[in-house]
Structures are given as structure tokens and as C-alpha cells.
Amino acid sequence: MTVRRYLDRLEVRRADQSERMAAPLPGQEMIEVDFRIRETVRREEKEAIGHAAFSLIQPGESVFIDAGTTPAFLAYAINDAKRITVVTNSLVVARTLENRTNVQCILLGGTVHGPTHSLVGQMAEEALSQFRFNRAFINGTSAIDLAAGLSQSTFEELPIKRKAARQASQVVVLADSSKLDKQVTFLFHGAY
């Protein structure tokens, strides 16, 4: 429920703070690091998170897997031991799962966001509204501040995260330890 509340509040503040969110903090620039580089950072930790997340999925479940490097490690951990349905906006997740015989993988449509290898936009949001999930595995965003909440450096992905969280019985945030108590370039909401 906490993640849902954070994401709901982020969406409400989106319209009110769009100009402020588009500006980096003083002395900082927005640098979007390529997915292939981010995937190598904290690789062992992300692999462990992926395996732990897969252990939460029960046979017959329907899950959403978000775009991002840590959710990609969940997809890498998925094997054919459990018959499941995966809905994703991640090109990496879809490509990873395409040959799993017990995994039905549904890729949302939308506009390709190159740096994150994800599909975003109204088409993706509308497609996502047709599903309900046992669990939504949401990327841990840019930072998690226990006082301020979640932040996201890729603004285009925020509506997808929010909608997936709303449509899931359980939300699991996938984040490596580098995301905790971190100052970020773009803050989407303040403390609650």
C-alpha cells in the first residue's frame, strides 16, 4: 500500500510541479546512463534480488515486471518450473522470456524509450489497464529515501508504475542497496 500511495501522490504532483521536476539540482546535469552499463553495476546483488523475487511467484500467478536493470534480473531468474503469466513494458524482459515454454509473456505496446529499453506512453497505459496482477514487481527507481519516498529519473515511466501498482494485489519494489538514502537529481515528491 505504501508504494501505491507514493505513486498516486507522484502523479498528482506531476502536473503541479512539471517545470520544477524538469530541472536538475544546482551543479548537476541529467545524465542517462546506458542500460548495458547499469546492468553491470552491483550485478551480484541484482542477481540475488532477481532470484529472491522469483521465489515469491507461485504457479498460476499473473505478474507485472517493470523495466529496469534489477527487474531484468528477475526475468533472468525465471525458469520453466512454474507456469505463470508475465506482463511487461520492458523489451529486455520480453526478449529474455520469449522462449520459456511455461511462461506466457505479454509485451505492452507504446513508444520505445531507448535508454531504459521500455515502452511508455498512452498506448502502454491503456493496454496495462486490461490486466490485474497477483504481484507487480516495480523497478526501485532512482532512489528510495525513507523520509521522502520514491523518486524516478525517467519521468515517462511514472504512469506505468502507478497503474501497475494499482492493479496488483501486492507490490514488490526491486532495488539494490545503492538506491537507499540517496540524494537524487529529480525529486518528485516531498516527505509524508
Descriptive account of the structure:
With 192 residues, the chain is α/β, with parallel strands linked by helices. The chain has one domain (2-18, 36-179): Rossmann fold (3-Layer(aba) Sandwich), CATH 3.40.50.1360. Helices cover 37% and strands 21% of the residues. The chain contains 8 helices and 9 strands. It has helices at residues 2-16, 18-21, 35-40, 43-56, 69-77, 91-97, 122-128, 158-166; strands spanning 62-65, 84-88, 103-107, 111-113, 118-120, 133-139, 143-145, 149-151, 168-174. Strands 3-2-1-6-9 form a 5-stranded parallel beta sheet, sandwiched between helices. Helix 1 (2-16) packs antiparallel against helix 8 (158-166), helix 4 (43-56) packs across helix 5 (69-77) and helix 5 (69-77) packs parallel to helix 6. It is globular and about 35 Å long. 38% of the residues are buried.
In short:
The protein is an alpha/beta fold. 37% of the residues lie in helices and 21% in strands. The protein has helices spanning 2-16, 18-21, 35-40, 43-56, 69-77, 91-97, 122-128, 158-166; strands at 62-65, 84-88, 103-107, 111-113, 118-120, 133-139, 143-145, 149-151, 168-174.
CATH topology: Rossmann fold
Q: What's the total helix number?
A: 8
Q: Note the run of SSEs as H and E.
A: HHHHEHEHEEEHEEEHE
Distance between the termini: 14 Å
* Percent range for β-strand residues: 15-25%
Number of domains: 1
Task: State the helical fraction.
Answer: 25-40%
Query: What value does the Rg take, in angstroms?
Result: 16 Å
- Write down the CATH class: Alpha Beta
Oligomer kind? single chain
Mean pLDDT: 76
CATH arch. level architecture: 3-Layer(aba) Sandwich
Tally of DSSP β-strands: 9
Strand arrangement across the biggest beta sheet: 3-2-1-6-9
In one word, what is the shape?
globular
Indicate the structural class.
alpha/beta
- How would you sum up the major sheet? 5 strands, parallel
What low-confidence regions span 5 or more consecutive residues with pLDDT below 50? 12-31, 185-192
